[in-house]
Amino acid sequence: MPRRHLRATGAAEAPLRAALRDLRARLDVPEKFPAGVLAEAERAVAGPRLPDEDATGVPFFTIDPPTSVDLDQAMHLSRRAGGGYRVRYAIADVAAYVTPKGPLDTEAHRRVTTLYFPDEKVPLHPTALSEGAASLLPDQTCPALVWTVDLDADGRTESADVRRALVRSRAKLDYDGVQRDIDAGTAEEPLALLADIGRLRERLEVERGGISLDVPEQEVVESPGGDAYELVYRAPLPADGWNAQISLLTGMAAAQLMIDSGTGVLRTLPTAPDGAVGRLRRTAKALDIDWPHHVPYAALVRSLDPRLPRHAAFLQECTTLLRGAGYTVFSGGEVPDLTTHAAVAAPYAHCTAPLRRLVDRYASELCLAACAGAAPPEWVLAALPALPKEMAEGTRRGNAVERACVDIVEAALLKDRVGEVFDAVVVDVKEAEPAVGTVQLTAPAVVARIEAAAPLPLGERLRVRLARADPGGATVLFTPA
Fold it and tell me: How many structural domains does the chain have?
């Protein structure tokens, strides 16, 4: 999934459309599905492979942005009679519709992930599946993979199981409404427990040395007058974090099931090298963020407020420590040396977003087999060796889309302000070219390249002049004023 979600609303879309259309062509983004893929999707919708177990009596609910319709996950939370909690987490069962080696499967391997643009998204699967039959929409009965994870009173996992079942979500909730109801004390227990369990899991995350980045969502919105647009940030709510903890809990349970069974695909990340952390320390200084040497990175991140522009900028820079993440496959009982994800500080797997990410379908099948004490399906084993490379290529394309979208939006925002002077801080300087670097504007929320005639003062405030802003070329360039 992208690190920054850019959404354009209202009149803000029009000036960006041409540049975004050119970007999709330049990156060879596969927008239209072939006719054979669409035909198979329609057949699959008419005749999915349905499970025998019926869990439609469980009042699941989803939590997503208000406009989302590709709903991968639904949950139900409850207290256990003997103490502790039970988390039931339903995941869309894409395999109920996709036949291995068929047109849908082949196209999914070509696309790898859903791609997000400010004006639209390019889905992994046809919308008849991803926004229709396979989506956990409210009041729709559909096949799912239902996880049951039992926790003790401290939120620690005691047992985990996954099996196929029919489910029926009762409600589509959004983060603002969830936060409002929990804060007001009006949420019914299955929802109110999200805060209790979420806080317990956050406490355990701190204990094991993990870290969750509350990176603000960047949004393109109309200005108050309606005749222009601007970049704003939406800071994550506590409910965002609690919801993410349920997904992390499931991903950790999935990883452990696969490790115990000897066959799996894990999301791994080695510990960041000292140089990367050193760069973050320079960025913290540039943004006037106090980072004493005795304070660990994770502790600093947890102290930040993503609603503050300087903190938001630093949290965005922290995502650079995730660049070494990859997928590790293993089979035959030979578990690899690296099984952990440094940010999670535990073994972890992607398994909760199969509508939007290819690998999740395979991880889920391996977990189903592990819980059933059965051998994994042959089609899963056959696909495993190629998955890390496929996912790496798909992730690279997603990152390229994200970077280019940010550049286009920032260039479009500034295109009529060439020659103006802004307050900024130098947040990065190229080691080989000390006169070239990156500046973060105080306002608007823009990070861009700067070129100077002399070495740039890393970490210092600077008045900069906008020299170029070209949405078509996705470039923004500043010079010292």
Answer: 2
